[in-house]
Design a protein that fits this description.
- With 315 residues, this protein is α/β, with parallel strands linked by helices.
- The protein has two domains: 215 residues, P-loop containing nucleotide triphosphate hydrolases (Rossmann fold, 3-Layer(aba) Sandwich), CATH 3.40.50; 65 residues, 2-Layer Sandwich (Alpha-Beta Plaits), CATH 3.30.70.
- Helices cover 34% and strands 26% of the residues.
- It has eleven helices and 14 strands.
- Strands 6-7-8-3-9-10 form a six-stranded mixed β-sheet, with helices on both faces.
- A hairpin with a 2-residue loop joins strand 1 and strand 2.
- The radius of gyration is 23 Å and the shape is elongated.
- The structure holds adenosine-5'-triphosphate (ATP).
- The site of adenosine-5'-triphosphate has 11 residues, from helix 1.
- It comes from Tumebacillus avium.
- GO terms for molecular function: ATP binding; ATP hydrolysis activity.
- Keywords: ATP-binding, Nucleotide-binding, Transport.
- This is ABC transporter domain-containing protein.
Length: 315
């Protein structure tokens, strides 16, 4: 499949200080691409370069195989919400949308109604924007960004300032958009916000890429399996042999009378069936997916994460 957006070796230097360095990103059609990093990591700078709002110092950005600078109308291809949305508070949602449509020299009532429906603002379309919640304002701004029917939607920290209910709504909304075929690039400094919606993840720290991979693969490779049993030693021996026979090199340990398989690489139901068949007493199997979070916390707290770039391979 041809990527919709490809960022290759992208760099940005401000007065001799490199704030984004040799960044690679690959976004496929239909992805919700989570772009993660602590504050100051270089997310906004990267997004601004992608959108052509600032000059890049090095590298290449391709949209559907074409150099970004050669696109005739980048903002028709890429809708964005980069700063606090510039809405007119004394106009209604529908009037705001109509105004922005007019600015694009278009009058398409059906498209407007379709967008209001899409961003779940049909009911509130005739209320003044000053009465909207922040989440509603964000969604209206997204509707405005979607006016030219872009193929990619770029959202820079869209959940900033939203309360937990607003964040949940935004997540559901993004999933709905993606379900309708939209490709989305979303940045955040919070892993758990992204983890629940993204299909692909890129983490940057200090302007450099820490990892990039499909989320499923990352979760898999950062998921430990804990086995609770009355016979930990026997289970430990069995599991070690079972993993070896299947060609896995995952580390297995005995901890607090439980058996722990780090980065469990297989189907837990299969292992469970094999253990039960061998007559081993298994009381519980628990998947722990906290290691991705641990790793991200280490990064955001300024520590060093020893994680390589993954592009279709393993961590
Ligand atoms: N115009 C500029 N001139 C000099 N340095 C800049 C400029 N814009 C950004 N930077 C620096 O580049 C680094 C990356 O900033 P950027 O805003 O891209 O990070 P971010 O990951 O988006 O973080 P945040 O979420 O806090 O905005 C920061 O150290 C910032 O101070």
């Amino acid at each position: 499949m041809q990527p919709l957006l490809e960022v290759k070796q992208l760099s940005k230097t401000y007065g001799g200080r490199t704030v984004v360095q040799d960044l690679d990103m690959t976004i496929y059609p239909g992805d919700i691409y989570g772009f993660l990093g602590p504050n100051g990591a270089g997310k906004t700078t990267t997004i601004r370069m992608i959108l052509g709002l600032i000059q890049k110092s090095g590298g290449e950005i391709l949209f559907a195989g074409q150099k970004m600078e050669e696109l005739r109308d980048p903002f028709a291809e890429i809708g964005c919400l980069v700063e606090a949305p510039g809405l007119y508070p004394n106009l209604t949602g529908r009037q705001n949308l109509a105004l922005f449509q007019k600015l694009r020299k278009k009058q398409d009532k059906a498209r407007m109604e379709e967008l209001l429906e899409m961003v779940d603002l049909k009911q509130a379309a005739d209320q003044k924007v000053k009465a909207y919640s922040l989440g509603m304002k964000q969604r209206l701004a997204i509707a405005i960004a979607l006016l030219p029917n872009p193929r990619l939607l770029v959202l820079d920290e869209p959940t900033n300032g939203l309360d937990p209910a607003g964040i949940r709504e935004m997540r559901a909304f993004l999933k709905k958009l993606a379900g309708q075929g939209m490709t989305i690039l979303i940045s955040s400094h919070l892993l758990d916000e992204i983890e629940k919606v993204a299909t692909r993840l890129c983490i940057i720290h200090g302007g450099k890429q820490v990892l990039e991979a499909p989320l499923e693969q990352l979760l898999q490779s950062h998921r430990d399996l804990e086995i609770v049993t009355a016979q930990p030693q026997a289970v430990f021996t069995f599991v070690t042999g079972w993993l070896k026979a299947r060609g896995h090199s995952a580390t297995t340990r005995l901890a607090d009378g439980k058996v722990l398989i780090e980065s469990f690489p297989d189907d837990s139901a299969l292992l469970n069936a094999a253990m039960v068949q061998s007559g081993l007493p298994i009381s519980e199997l628990r998947m722990q997916s906290s290691r991705l979070e641990d790793m991200f916390m280490t990064i955001t707290e300024g520590g060093q994460a020893h994680v390589g770039r993954v592009a279709g391979g393993s961590v």
